Amino acid sequence: MHVFDKSRIDAVNAALATGRPLLVRGEPGIGKSQLARATAKLLGRAYIPFVVTSHTESRDLMWRFDAISRLAHAQLGAALGGDKDNLRRELALDNFIAPGPLWWAFDWNGARSQAARYLPSSHCDDEAKQVGNYLQPPQSDGGDHKQGAVVLIDEIDKAEMDIPNGLLEVLGKRCFLPEGFTERVYVEGVPPLIIITTNEERAMPDAFLRRCLALHLALPSLPGEREKFQEILVERGGHHLPDLDKTLLESAACLVAEDRIIAQNQHHRPLPGQAEYIDLLHAIHELAPGNPEAQQKKLEQVARYVVSKRRSDQG
């Protein structure tokens, strides 16, 4: 469950109104990624997540060229001694291009057609290949691509700067040209909402920032705003697990606040915060369901493993 506060609602509405990507900044575990999925569910849109890694290239967000499958197909065709003209047609680059998340977001039907054409999908059953189900983003929340799409580009700061730099043109012009194609892919229908997250491990290029709106998610600072910090945790804990006793929610928030202050003073990262708090509540809820007294006893026992991840006093 994601809790939309006013700043998140305003930021999403502004991004929808301007057509700009929304860059969501903040520490790990504060709810940046969940914002994208929750927004897609709220709007009834298709949800298309993509997690960036250190090996991600900017084109992976638009398309992926399967060079290994193409080479294998060429070697197999040569070994079998098939018709050369037919083999040449089969080895066309566009038969080995898989649509990426932005392709699905820009032109779902076009991406679906390309997914069905994608030659390495030949090992799938005929129905899956014909309709492009092999690569189609699953919609577990019932999102409808006809209502538009919400794309999550998660943890963009994990990659080198060629990722944000490589997105400048596609974000600005809302089109791109896949390798081996002669026609560009344009936005068809409702423009997508693109949400990009960063843990701010690396600074983003200025040109990239100018093309985005920015939302900074942060918990109140400690120790100065401890009361507000704990109030926010209790409120969000109540949304996630409404059957837990409020006294337990408050005790758990107090433990997380104490550990966060200790981690800050010892310069430990990541700081315990909202994610650890919710995990702690879920653990207690599962270990002592429906028993407030037992849950309170379990709190400190479990907290040392869920919250105190950098501490040496777990024995």
Write structural notes for this entry:
- The chain has helices at residues 6-18, 32-43, 67-80, 84-90, 101-106, 108-117, 126-131, 162-166, 168-173, 206-210, 226-240, 246-265, 274-287, 292-306, and strands spanning 22-25, 45-51, 63-65, 97-99, 144-154, 175-176, 185-186, 193-198, 213-216.
- The chain is α/β, with parallel strands linked by helices.
- It folds into 2 domains: 6-67 and 73-216, Rossmann fold (3-Layer(aba) Sandwich); 226-306.
- A hairpin with an 8-residue loop joins strand 6 and strand 7 (185-186).
- The longest helix is centred in the C-terminal third of the chain and has 20 residues, at 246-265.
- The relative contact order is 0.14.
- Residues 18-223 form the AAA+ ATPase domain.
C-alpha Rg (nearest Å): 24 Å
Global outline:
elongated
Elements, N to C (H/E):
HEHEEHHEHHHEHHEEEHEHHHH
Strand content: 5-15%
The strand line-up of the biggest sheet is 2-5-8-1-9
* Oligomer category: single chain
The assigned structural class equals alpha/beta
Unreliable stretches covering 5 or more consecutive residues: none
For the sheet with most strands, the description reads: 5 strands, parallel
CATH architecture of the largest domain: 3-Layer(aba) Sandwich
Number of strands: 9
Would you identify the CATH H-level superfamily of the largest domain? P-loop containing nucleotide triphosphate hydrolases
N-to-C CA distance: 34 Å
Domain AAA+ ATPase: 18-223
Protein name: AAA domain (Dynein-related subfamily)
GO molecular function, one term: ATP hydrolysis activity
Pfam family, one: AAA_5
